[in-house]
Model the fold of this input.
Amino acid sequence: MAAVHDDHAHGHGHGHEHGHDDHAHGPPKGMMRWLTTTNHKDIGTMYLWFSFSMFIVGGLMAFGIRAELFQPGMQLMTPEFFNSLTTNHGLIMVFGAIMPAFVGFANWQVPMMIGAPDMAFARMNNWSFWLLPPAALLLVSAFFVPGGAGAGGWTFYPPLSVQMGMGMDMMIFAVHILGASSIMGSINIITTILNMRAPGMTLMKMPLFVWTWLITAYLLVLVMPVLAGTVTMLLTDRHFGTNFFNAAGGGDPIMFQHIFWFFGHPEVYIMILPAFGIISEILPTFSRKPLFGYSSMVYATASIAILSCIVWAHHMFTVGMPVTAQLFFMYATMLIAVPTGVKVFNWTATMWQGSMSFETPMLFAIGFIFLFTIGGFSGVVCAVIPVDIQVQETYYVIAHFHYVLVSGSLFALFGGVYYWLPKWTGHMYDESLGKLHFWLSMVFFNVTFFVQHFLGLAGMPRRVPDYALQFADFNMISSIGAFGFGLSQLVFLTVVVKCIRGGKKAEAKPWDGATTLEWDLPSPAPYHSWVTPPVVK
Amino acid sequence: MSHESSQTDNYYIPPPSTYPMIGSIALFFLGFGAAFSVNSLPIGKGLLAIGFSILFYMIFVWFRTVAQESEAGKFNKQVDMSFRWGMSWFIFTEVMFFAAFFGALYYMRVLSVPWLADLEHKILWPDFTGGWPTAGPGASEKFTPMGPWGLPAINTALLLTSGVTCTWAHWALKLNKRGQLNLSLFLTIALGITFLACQIYEYGHAYSELNLKLTSGAYGASFYMLTGFHGFHVTVGTIMLIVILCRCLSGHFTPEHHFGFEGVAWYWHFVDVVWLGLFIFVYLV
Done:
């Protein structure tokens, strides 16, 4: 989101003469700048805009879902199309909106926060981004092929996913491409963080956002190839006669679920750990206190990442597995509440007796703590096997993961955008519009999803276009909330566009409590920053 | 690079490049081409061909550029370290890709096949006993499993030997013995190609004489997917070795600065180790 002025002064007295002969004349003009760039800020900007447009696409699908569910009975669409909407809403929000947004943050912030001139593999970095549009095209155009887009849920469960039409193949290949993009992106981030820190920045001096992304990137290289493997098996089962997920051939459809969730559970932490990082940057700044328990935050993040790899079967308690295995996965899942609790405690303690102020980023951070904690608690509820057997595949689960993904990941993203917009654009955003965006989002989010807890506990199944009359009131409330939440995001778009186009000039450090390296650079951050690395003491 | 002596002080950041864009166009054609081909749409094959052509072109010019940048001395120690981290984690992702298929093999052998033979399943498939190898309870055709001590054992020897010659090449490069370097690299490539030839022969033998096919249930699927992906990686590794040999012949690499060589050697050893896993768990036990 940047009008980056490359003619602007460079930070800390390093000028053009220092190497960088290839860049001395600035980037190419017009469209070619974006197509060919090797600049982490340009690429970060493209990631963020791509993610926002996918957020709109996925959001429109949610509108379709909530419009159909506004009243009982079949109103607007066929059940098949409804299923396509839920499936692709999930896929697009996960792979198209949330993940690229965090990679966009990593691109913008990691080099600036560790004092590096750019990402380690600047050219490959651009490829990681430009792989996303073809994948998005595959996902979206699947709606227009015979048989329609994949409609078996974003989790691709066989045997349904083995039986569907061409749309499913397009989903599979889209996931392959998205996986390649994520793998390249995460290798880039790991290498940048491990190899390009400024002199004196030891690992335990890194900003927490950088730490959380390092750990996230490890998770990505660990599990994305497994996803590629499992959708490849699905593809060969569909078209080349293998029997991985076919019991008659000695395989097992449940094996798909095990391999998928071996990817899928770490995946949810891939979407929340960088959010933890952003919150851990915002809270100390606006509390004007250092982060409470920095090292315990690092260890908690690592513990969550490690635990996330051994809890996958809690997504499938009802498919049948030995009781010993169920107990193991239940206890391991509950164990995650411990490091997560450490984090929530530390965030709260950071604010304790701080000199707090409540600008928009801080509002989103505090909103995050409240709502994410609710989502965390409902997660512990779902981890208890007897309860999970009741709420599996109901709206309770929908409510749970929207509390962690929307009011968790997405709120952190919003907070991060407001926090760093002055650095990216050189302008202050409109504070009152920002606050309006927060309060609208906060209220409508809860209107949408809080009632879904009740729907789920009362037994309303997910992924159905119609429901029993008893669920009508709560569904209507939820739909109204969803439309409100979606429309509120236009306020966000307005704030961002206004901020890029102009506004009060931002100082180098507009937040007086901020301490990380990017605030030592002028605002907007120069096109090339830290060509000569700063020395960290 | 002519005049700047300070060039290696700064981390090399490449100038704007069209290669990523070209690669994405390739993937666009490949994605749609693959989706259409597997559904037998006539246009699919054409799209795939276009996609692969663009992709190979992109890979060629991209790696040529990196080699030129390397020879021009643009990569300082820190860039070299980036390549090392990058290649290590890339190989790690490859390990995890194979882990998915090994995981599927173990799951079927240890869990799903025995389950299909237990008491509950007697109603469905009363005659199924659940031994390994199996094409599953619903299989109508019989097949003979691939034994380990014929061609697979020879293949193991071939790949292990190629690991030795690869290390010999590295040793020769470090001592600047270019003749030995070229010879040992050539031997490594020859061993790799021989391995692939044997593998192709083995597949032909399996299809025509053992009636062992991709469609032969759990055993056939895991056998062909694991050995097939491994064979694909050997192919890629062999192509990479050929590129390195060509670079050696045109005088690239010095005893101190040769990560291009080392990265490929790492990859080759990785392919070797995967084969050992295959030999033990697919062929032997």
